[in-house]
């Protein structure tokens, strides 16, 4: 599955983008208008990504100053970074995808979909070193004495987080 995805990403997508730009230049709006469109979307996309990135950075700083973990704001920042990267790439499809990521309601939908995928396909376990009974490995949160998720007293308090991606395959008819 990952090999097919990479082939599509690095071979099929650029070929499709080139075909669309060629059709726009020859049968559509013309060569110079196509070049202007590519340059305009790159500059406009970079400016929008910069503006939204700075707003998100301010939000992250505000949440951290308030003592909160800025999880959603960090996720927004990552999606804005992806949007900026695809917007400076010449092409109509990548520009459409990038602009969609810069529209907050659409970005929220992508964020929900990615979170649902991760909740279904990523397994997170934690382990604490040290403690009264020696190392506690592979215990889910709340698996310590008392079941309240507290860190064992004594010894080290280093937390180790291990994540594993579970590949899913979709059978198509």
TrEMBL record:
GO terms for cellular component: membrane. It holds the Pfam family FxsA. It comes from the Bacteria. Residues 130-154 have a biased composition (Gly residues). NCBIfam families: PRK11463.1-2 (NF008528). Residues 129-158 are annotated as: Disordered. InterPro entries: FxsA. The chain crosses the membrane at residues 28-49, 73-93. This is Phage T7 F exclusion suppressor FxsA. Keywords: Membrane, Transmembrane, Transmembrane helix.
């Amino acid at each position: 599955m990952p090999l097919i995805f990479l082939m599509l990403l690095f071979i099929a997508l650029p070929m499709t983008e080139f075909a669309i730009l060629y059709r726009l230049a020859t049968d559509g709006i013309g060569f110079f208008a196509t070049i202007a469109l590519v340059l305009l979307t790159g500059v406009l996309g970079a400016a929008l990504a910069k503006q939204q990135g700075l707003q998100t950075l301010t939000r992250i700083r505000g949440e951290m100053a308030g003592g909160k973990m800025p999880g959603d704001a960090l996720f927004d920042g990552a999606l804005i970074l992806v949007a900026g990267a695809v917007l400076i790439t010449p092409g109509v499809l990548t520009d459409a995808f990038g602009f969609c990521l810069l529209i907050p309601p659409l970005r929220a939908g992508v964020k929900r979909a990615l979170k649902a995928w991760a909740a279904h396909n990523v397994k997170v376990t934690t382990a604490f070193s040290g403690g009264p009974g020696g190392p506690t490995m592979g215990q889910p949160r709340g698996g310590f004495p008392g079941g309240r998720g507290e860190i064992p007293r004594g010894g080290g308090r280093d937390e180790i987080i291990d994540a594993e991606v579970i590949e899913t395959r979709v059978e198509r008819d």
